[in-house]
Amino acid sequence: MAKNSSFDIDFGYGRKGEQLVEELLTGGRTVEVKRDRKWWITNNIYIETECWYMKSGSWEPSGLSVTEAAYWAFVLEQSTFIVPTHILKKTVEHYRDWETDRKSVV
Fold this sequence. Notes:
With 106 residues, the protein is of the alpha+beta class. The protein has a domain at 30-95. It has three helices and five strands. The strands form two sheets. Strands 1-4-5 form a three-stranded mixed beta sheet. A two-stranded antiparallel ribbon has the order 2-3. The model has no long low-confidence stretch (mean pLDDT 84).
C-alpha cells in the first residue's frame, strides 16, 4: 500500500483552496462585497441585518438577512476576508445581542 507524503496531502488541500478562489474570481460563485471605513478604529466589522425604513416606520430585514450571495467578502485596506454566507449567518446569530443591538454585530 502506497503512503501519501505530507506534501501530497498538503498539495491536494491547497489545490482545493485555489479552485475555490478561481471560482470566486471567474464568476462561478456569487460574492457580496462590503467595506467598512471605521473597522480599524473600532476593531469591528459592521454587518447589517436590518434597516429602519421611514416609509413603513419599522425595522425590516436587509443586508445579511436577505442576501442571495454564496459568500461575503470584506475589503479591509489592502486585504480581503472572504467567508461563506451560511457560516457568517450562524456566527451573527450566535453573537448577536437582540436586546441592545437591532442592526449589526461583530
